[in-house]
Each structure stands twice: as C-alpha cells, then as structure tokens.
Design brief:
Elements lengths: L11 E4 L6 E4 L1 H48 L2 H17 L7 H21 L7 E2 L2 E2 H4 L3 H8 L2 H18 L1 H19 L5 H14 L54 H6 L10 E2 L5 E2 L18 H14 L4 E8 L3 E8 L1 E9 L17 E10 L2 H5 L2 H8 L5 E3 L8 E6 L8 H5 L2 H9 L3 E7 L4 E5 L6 E4 L6 H15 L5 E6 L27 H22 L4 H6 L9 E6 L2 H7 L1 H14 L5 E7 L9 H5 L3 E4 L5 H8 L12 E5 L7 E5 L4 H11 L13 H12 L7 H9 L3 E2 L1 H8 L3 H13 L12 E2 L10
Parallel strand pairs: 15-18, 15-19, 16-17, 17-18
Antiparallel strand pairs: 1-2, 3-4, 5-6, 7-8, 8-12, 9-10, 11-12, 13-14, 13-21, 19-20, 20-21, 22-23
Helix pairs in contact: 1-5, 2-3, 3-5, 3-6, 6-7, 10-12, 16-19, 16-23, 18-19, 25-26
Amino acid sequence: MARAKVKPRPTYRRSTSTGRRGGTYHPHSFAQGRSLGRWAIVAGVVLVIILIPFVGPIIRDAALDLREALVRLLGLGVLLLVTGLVANGWLVLAKQFSRSRAFWRRWWGVLLLGLSLTGFMALFRPDWHVGDVYFSEITAGGDLGHTLMGSAGGILLWLAVTFSAIALLWPRQVAWLLSHLPDLWRALMHFRLPDEMREGLRSLAVVFLPRAERREPELDIALPKGWDGEALRPPTGGGVQAELPLPEAPLSVEEVVAPTAPADQLATAPTAVATPSGRPASYGWELPLLDTLSPAVEADIKQIDNSARAQLIEDTLASFGVDARVVQVNQGPTVTQFGIEPGWEVKTRTVIERDNRGRPVYDKDGNPRYKTEVVTRTRVRVSQITSLANDLALALAASSIRLEAPVPGKPVVGIEVPNSSPSLVTLRSVVETSGFQRIAARSRLALALGKGVSGEAVVADLAKMPHLLIAGATGSGKSVCINSIISCLLMHNTPEELRFVIVDPKRVELAAFAPIPHLVFSRIVVEVDDVVATLQAVIHEMETRYRRFAAVGVRNIDGYNRSPRVPHKLPCWVVIIDELADLMISAPYHVERQICRLAQLSRATGIHLIIATQRPSVDVVTGLIKANFPTRIAFAVSSQVDSRTILDGGGAEKLLGRGDMLYMPTDASKPKRIQGSFVSDQEIERIVNFWANDRFRHLRPEVADHLLQEAKGAVEEEEEDPLLDKARELAQEHSRISTSLLQRRLHVGYPRAARLLDLLEEKGIISAAEGGQSRRVLASRENQEF
C-alpha cells in the first residue's frame, strides 16, 4: 500500500527589530500571546475602574476646560471637527485608508473645506452659548474664524483656502470654468443687469480676469490693477477708454472725474458731501462706531510700593495688639484695597515640664524645667480692626480710608487707601470689556458704570434695576455720571429702540443732547412748571401700553415685541430728571405721587426712571421714593446723615469725589465702590453730531408733543385735592390753623398738608403766612364759596 503523505508542519517566521534576521516559533506561542493580551486588557479595565473615583474629578475638569477651549477656538466648527474625527476613525477601522494621490487629494480638500466653513461661520453672531463661551462675543466661527475674517490678510487667506478646497474636490469642473471664464464674463455683461449685480461682477473681474479682459461693453473703461471695483460712470455721449490711476486714499465722488468730460458738465455736476459712517442697525438706522469715543489713555500713574504699605498696615495693627496680615492687594484706578486676614488671640500659661510618667523634668543644675502651653486660641474680632481706622489713616498718611468688613465673597477685611495719583476711567475702556459685551448681547439697556477697586469693569442692566436713584454733592461727579449713561445708551440704541424724556431744571447740564432724534418731545423740559405735565404724559403712555398688552394677551414689553400680532415694536423710554430737589420744592405732592406711580407700574411697559439730586435729605428723597428705587448710586456727600438717607448706611461721606461712588444694586447687601466712567464734552459732541446728521432726516420718528399738550390741559382741569373739603371744615372749627394741625387731624404728611394750606389760601379761606406762625381763618361758614 502506498504510504500517505504527511503534510509538513508550517513554520512561522518573525522578523527581529532590524528586519534582517528571522526566527521560528510554534503556533501555540502565538495563541498564548493573544491570551496574555486579553488578560492585559482586562487588567487595564479593572485598573481604570479602580482609579475613576480618584481621578474622575480631574478628568472631568480637564474635559470641560478642553471643551471650552475648543469651542472658543473653533466655535460651531467643533461639530465639523467631531464629524471629521468620527469619519477618520471609521476609515481606520474599515481599512479604507489608501496611499493613492486621489484619496489624499480628497482628504485634504475636505479638510480645507471645513476650515473654509469655519471662516464663513464667523460672519454670524448667534445668541447661543456653550458653558461660559458666548458666540455673540467670539462669532459662530470662534477665534479661528474671527482671525480669518477679521482683516484683509485673513480674508485673502480664507479665499485661498476656499478655492484650494474646491480645486482639490472638483478639479475638472474648476479647470473647465477657468478656461471658459472670459467667455462667460463677456456673455453676462451683454445683459441688462441691475447696478448692484453689475458692480459685483466688475469686482470679480478685477480679481479673476486678465487685465486685457477687464472691459465693460457699455462703458469701455479699463480698470487698473488693484482698483477696488468702483469706477465712476462717465457722462453720456460716447464711450471713453481711459486708464484711471490708483489713488493713495479713497476718493469722494467729486474727486473721481473722467479726464475727457466737458467743462460745462463738470461745472454742473452735483457735489456729494462726505458723511460719517456707522454700524448697520435695524430699520435703516446706523449706530456710531466705537471710534467715536476717545480711546483709553494710559495715565502716568506713580508707582506705589504696595508691599511697603502692606507691611506698614501689619506693623500698625501689631502695635495695638491686633494680630493680622495682608493677604490681598488690589490696585484700582482711585484706591488700592488691602485684604486683611484676622489672626488669632492666643492665651498661654507657664507650667512645669513633665515626662511620660508625670514626673517633673529637671535640668543639669537640678532645677525644674518650665514650658509654655496654649490655654485658649480665638480669632481676632473684626471690630478690633475697624475701630483702628483713624490710626491706620494716620500711619498711612492718607486723608481718609474706608474699611469694608467683610469684603463680599471673601474672608478678609478690606482697607481702601487712596492712590496718590488716580487714573481716569474712560467710557470706551469699559464698553470694550467682555463683561459689557455679554450684557449688551442680552439687553439693549446695558450701562457702563465704571471700574471697581480691583480694576474690574462694573456694568449693569437698566432693565433689571429697573429704576436708578443718584445722589451726591456739587462737584462729586453726578452730572458726569448722567452724561455717561446717556452716551452709553446712545452708542447702542437707535430711536426705534429707545426714546428719552429729559428734565433739566438747571438748563445747561443736559442741553448738549437737544438735537438727538431719540427725544420723545421736541425739546428738553427745562421749565419747572412743565414737569408735572411731562410726568403725566409719561403716565398716560404707560397706561396706553398696558391697554395694548391686554389686547394682545401679553404681560410685558418683551412679550409684546415678540408677538406676531403687533404691527410694530414699542421702544423703551428712559425718563431722566437731573435735579429732584427743585421739583419737590415747586410741586411736592404731585411730583412725589407721579414718580412713585411710575416707579411702581412702569417696569413692565419698558419705561425706566433715572433721578438725580444733590440734596439727599428726607424731604427730597422721601421714604416712598426710596422704597420704589432699590438701585442707588451715592457720590461724595457732606455728612453721614445724607449717606444714610440715600444708602441706609454710612460710607459715602468718606468718598474722594470726582467720580468716586458707591453703587448699591438690587441683589447686594452692601454697596460696591466704583470709579465712574468719564465722557468728555468732545465725545458727547461727536455722538450728538452723528445722530443729528441729515441722512437720518427721513427716518426721524414723530415727536409726542400732543401728549404733553393733553397732559397740560388735564393738569389744569384736575380736580382739587379730595381732602380739601375736610381741611375747609377743620379751618371753620378753629380761628387759626397750621400745617401740623392738618397733619395730625387728617393723617397726611408735611408736603400734602402744606399743599392744602396753599389751596385754602388761594380760595381766600385763610390768611398768608405770618413769619412761620399759624394762619388766621378769614372766611366764615356762611359766606364760604367753592
């Protein structure tokens, strides 16, 4: 029988590290290696499970930081990055990667296309956010897209990337288009196209077509190399072929003239006047450019040795037996805040040292050893530090210092020491901060108030305040603060979005804003007699808006403006009263009642009040007004009584003036010290000139002077005080009557009682004032007429 052939055992060869020599191994060794690999994977998984409780928070924080960094860098392009990584992972697993040129050409084409889309998304600023990254600040394309589309060089790079991606993905189509582009250009220019499309095609011709092909059949003008595509159309009556030189600067319409134009046509050609440009806004309006405001100027701040002052504070406290140390130093524009951490009060006693068995320990001379042990250890009281304010001011050679105990959100006591050379806080330096831009993206009424003691920008939203009360002595910066608030609102709002009602009894403080189209009435109210009618007109507008809200079925102005049932949106109103004291003297009863009614009801209608006074006494800033103005700003005042009137606490009497203020928001328990933003007269003039330009003449909204006239008539025909009859009866019961008597018997305040006395005097019931004494009753019950 034939012997069966035995198939030889296969020999496996494995190359060494050099790749030149090989060896043989048994197939069981290969299986054993795979088994060991599985056990290694299992061991690795178990190790990860064990380490997750320890390294989980670190990995989570690192992942969140990585996510925000990627979103800030790429914006919505992160989605393209994730899609690309998933696609590449699938190609690796499916073994679809190829070394061919076609594969890598498409791969690079897709990569460049994603980069081009990232730059294109930088043109949009949606109101979305991922974590702390807001796309309204960095654009939808992130920092990368903003870099590509934020400059001329970046745009050229983006165009190069886009065309490269198209050429890599569709090379045949691009080659065909480039070869036939001159023919397509000539064919398109033979059609009657709109002027805008013709200008766009001319600009494309400058970029793509050869110089010999840059001709327009109707005009026959050769465009020079580097021209931006805008050429002046020559007069009719024959084609002109001329070479226009490239100007060094943009030319106005009257400067670009065809060389062969007749002299009579040049003499009668209309002249265009250059107008300042702005940022595009809604309804055809424009907003002033940020360059309208003066840039932040670095002041010559004298270098202060804060470490020496911190050591001086510690030594001064130690000399009075107070253990404390400086842990924070925050230098602001006006003051430097030193954060003091209280130490410990330690009480000790001296006892005999003993060993482990409780026996006394003796030295080599046979004397017992003594040791010091701590009996009690308590924290230094904050009152011990605050009581040394004058001693610290003397040691630091400062005019006055302010102690904040404790600093909100920090476990330290703040000592605010004035700087020897304060710096100026410009309005632009606050507007350019990310904090202001974040609030401005959500609200149209963002206010750039100034900078805090640490140099951080302090911004607020007037819509959330919703009303603001400002008080301060003469020269403390109150009027500059109002000018800064108005200028900030004018920089970011058109008359379709915001209207002003300005009351200026001083006649000069806010007169610069008279030409702006944002005014509700045709003029700034300067007559004190017109203030009551002005406030009544605002109340009438508030009531009208509430009736509109009820008809549409919404609760506030935001819901009304978002409703598709309304024909047009309602603008917000900001009522600014520069001096409340003058109004309270002339008509205290009516002004207080109208201001309180507006403050209580006008928030939902988009009407906000900003009231200022330089005399924050209790007869001007009454308790009813304070209750309806939770947000307040206090500048330097003369006494602690005035500070308590405006802030319900001291501190404003220690301010330095010139914009140094205390800001009390609605959500804070303590006021915050701020150096107010400054706006110069030149900046105000530039802003007002921008809005008063004639190009906005056809867009100016109608003024509401008819509301003022109707309110004046209503005030004149207003019924008498309902308590006048009771005051008359009370006067008939006595031979003399006074304000205090009316207050006690009618249960009214002093302003209303004084008003009732004036009405009784007008009716001839009582006599005129006699040196502060009570009034004599003149009319009897029989001949009284009303």
